[in-house]
Fold this sequence. Notes:
It is a single chain. This protein has 411 residues and is α/β, with parallel strands linked by helices. The protein has helices spanning 5-20, 24-31, 40-52, 54-65, 74-89, 94-107, 114-134, 140-147, 151-172, 210-214, 223-231, 265-278, 321-324, 329-341, 362-368, 375-379, 396-399, and strands at 179-183, 194-195, 202-205, 218-220, 239-243, 257-262, 283-287, 300-306, 343-353, 371-372, 392-394, 404-410. It has two domains: 5-135, N-utilizing Substance Protein B Homolog, Chain A, CATH 1.10.940; 179-410, 3-Layer(aba) Sandwich (Rossmann fold). Strands 5, 6, 7, 8, 9, 10, 11 and 12 form an eight-stranded mixed β-sheet that branches. The chain has a four-stranded antiparallel β-sheet with strand order 2-3-1-4. α1 packs across α5 (74-89). The longest helix has 22 residues, at 151-172. The termini are far apart.
Amino acid sequence: MSATGARSAAHRVVLRVFEDGAYADRAFASAAARLDERDRPLAHRIAYGTVQRVRTLDYAIEALGRRPVRKLDPAVCAALRIGSYQLGYLEIAPHAAVSESVELVREAGLERAVAFTNAVMRRLAEGMRPLVESLPERTAAEAALKHSYPDWVAETWWKELGRQGALDLMRAQNEPLETVVRRNRRKEGRVEGSPDSDLPDALQVERVDERALADGVVWPQSRGSQLAGLAVRAGAGDRTLDLCAAPGGKATQLAGKVVAVEKHPGRARELEENCRRLGADNVTVVCADALELPRSLDGFDKAIVDAPCSSLGILASRPDARWRAQPLPELQLALLRAAVERVRPGGSVVYSVCTINSAENERIVEASGLEPDPSLAEEWPQFRHPRRPDFLLTLPHIHRTSGFFIARLRV
């Protein structure tokens, strides 16, 4: 026999993420390119779930397999990881998880490791789920192991959200959130789905319609991300500066004239293509460093800074982000100040980041010295920040969307 296409694809993704430092979404797109459509959902669930839960999986492999994972051949380690994920978190027949993990090792040309893999997988089949269920979560460190997060992330949420809030957030970001697309009002068309009462252009769908996406009728964009674009309140007569604009979801939401800045040439080209696809001919793309803008880019009515961040609000959709997450407060503050310099007096700047971490959220606003616009939370009371009522904060475990911090500031 041979391992199924779904598990082979997941095996390649896990190898690329942990051995080559690849991004999970790009690795999956490559690994699943020739996969049968019926196998794609299982391959996606196994690949993403394994990357998310790898800390807990490695603990179980070492406890039950009695071998440090760092000493395993990468292909063997990846096979054990995806096998243990299936045994611990999916309703899959144990014999299938065991036999196909063994076959993955055989297909990798590691016949000498087949017996070892089989023995470890059999131990995992018996003990994986009881072991995971028995892990305590009384402290941040215990919860980080049980739910597979870096210690610093668990400690941050424990401190800022309390024990129960942190646990609820960790659990939510290990499960798929809603799939939402933004209806593109610039084009006519129809997408199956129920309009979201909070955001009129948000449509919750079971899966993205690839034809509608290609035609620019819809754009995949979470409610949290859409909220950041709506917070700008760009009118038909406004000039708006969008820093760090790629891939263009927020820029293409905005009315009036928009200058969308992207530093990286490849992403700038992608941004231009997305604007064309969505019919956003009001957007001008500028490939430049946001911290070194041409002097001609000045006098804007509004700006939005969707700054690079630790991405702690989108861990459900980016499973590898938790293992490479890094707060970037110095860069975020510099970008916010760069935007303020290009906005006329009396204008406004929206600062948004897809993270849940006060050091990158409210503390950046405080350091800027700018006055928050309290009307923002009056417009969207359902997303009011729990500690800072002038700001917005979407939370995956409460709002079932990606986590975004949003502040509208007066210049």
